[in-house]
Write a structure and sequence with these properties.
two-stranded antiparallel ribbon, PB1-like_dom_pln, disordered N terminus
Length: 98
Amino acid sequence: MARSRFCKEEMGFFDLKLYHGGRIDYGIESIRYVGGETTIIAEMDSDWWSLYEAYSELRHLGYPRGNISSLWYKDPALPFTDENLMSFSTDVDSEEMY
């Protein structure tokens, strides 16, 4: 998720693409996201982006924090592979995203 993890735009804003409600399917040669939905949250402020903000956005989509087992991210310029998925579990991780 180079240093620009998301589609970061001018003035410190970026668009966040969330895949939710599905699962990661581990195939023999590749992985893919199966089922669920895709939601774009436009113009997220990178100055305020944090793990807390991620959980807040997910709560707005109907996912209480207690029901979320893990969060993952990847650079949108990289292919969807196991090696490119990064755990999102601390605010340090949120800084690595952009």
